[in-house]
Design brief:
The chain has 1 helix and 25 strands. It has one domain (5-290): TolB, C-terminal domain (Neuraminidase, 6 Propeller). By secondary structure, it is an all-beta fold. Strand 3 and strand 4 form a beta hairpin. The protein has a 5-stranded mixed β-sheet with strand order 1-22-21-20-19, with no helix packed on it. It has a 4-stranded antiparallel β-sheet with strand order 2-25-24-23, with no helix packed on it.
Length: 291
């Protein structure tokens, strides 16, 4: 099976197995509401704020086009970074400030951005040719990955200053994906997920998985993402207090959770054929689901 190029850019993985106890896993039943941009071949939702406003990307071919959207009150608002054919909004805070990245295929450069609904502000880490800005909190602190399109180090940006994330291990790719309002950061590496608190990072993997990516965290400490095992090429999960709850869109080949808000709504995307992708939002999950 082959992931689309845009998802490979964000979900870069290799094979590795980290053995953990299976007793910390379970299943959770969620109700999916599909959200598709009219006329698009693919729709991917990457982030959601406390009000339920969502951001994501859509297009006809994940190999060469991506456009941004805001979905609020059941209506789409579309936007593109000027002059770029790929615009990928990945996060939104409660002030509706949107973070993401943009590029042109083959250019070798990627630039992060902030978008307030009217204008774009460029986010660039020093002389790096690629800055993937991926997550934002209510103080407008950012997380992401910077370096080149071939290798990145995870970063957090506070008060306009970039600082590397000290994720243990040696990896080609490290990217922070989301940050909550208490400063806890989640992200992924070549094969592993990770969490950082107070300048200390640790690896977090779904038990028995060959690939794990952490993509969202809310202020209640609920983490969401996706994992791959021999029994599931790509399943979504929610994690709290060491307990993983797995879920997938019925019949889908791959389900990824991209974000979660403080109400417990989870957003993401699923596919049946790795060509057409569909955005989704779930009903809120609660503490009772983890018992």
């Amino acid at each position: 099976m082959r992931l689309p190029r845009e998802l490979l850019l964000l979900f870069t993985v290799m094979s590795c197995v980290l053995a953990q106890a299976q007793s910390n896993t379970g299943l959770v039943n969620v109700t999916f509401t599909t959200i598709d941009v009219p006329g698009a071949v693919y729709t991917i939702i990457w982030g959601v704020n406390s009000a339920g406003d969502m951001v994501g990307s859509y297009g006809q071919n994940t190999s060469n086009d991506a456009h941004g959207f805001l979905y609020s009150n059941s209506a789409f608002t579309y936007f593109d970074y000027p002059g770029q054919s790929i615009t990928v909004p990945t996060g939104i805070n409660d002030s509706n400030l949107i973070v993401g990245y943009d590029t042109n295929p083959g250019s070798g450069t990627v630039t992060g951005f902030l978008y307030d609904g009217a204008s774009f502000t460029t986010v660039k880490d020093g002389i790096n040719s690629a800055t993937f800005a991926l997550g934002i909190d209510n103080a407008s602190d950012l997380v992401g990955g910077a370096g080149t399109i071939y290798t990145t180090k995870g970063f957090e940006m506070r008060n306009g200053r970039f600082k590397n994330l000290n994720v243990p291990g040696v990896y080609t790719y490290v990217r922070g994906t989301k940050v909550n309002n208490f400063g806890t950061i989640v992200g992924w590496t070549d094969v592993d997920g990770f969490m950082c608190r107070n300048n200390s990072c640790k690896i977090i993997d779904y038990p028995g998985a060959s690939q794990t990516a952490l993509w969202g965290i809310n202020d209640k400490g609920v983490v969401v993402g996706w994992y791959s095992t021999s029994g599931c090429a790509g399943c979504a999960f929610a994690l709290k207090n060491g307990r993983f709850l797995s879920f997938s869109f019925p019949g889908a080949a791959f389900t990824s959770a991209g974000g979660i808000n403080n109400s417990g709504q989870i957003v993401g995307a699923y596919t049946f054929d790795y060509n057409a992708w569909h955005g989704f939002v779930t009903n809120p999950i609660t503490d009772a689901d983890f018992r």
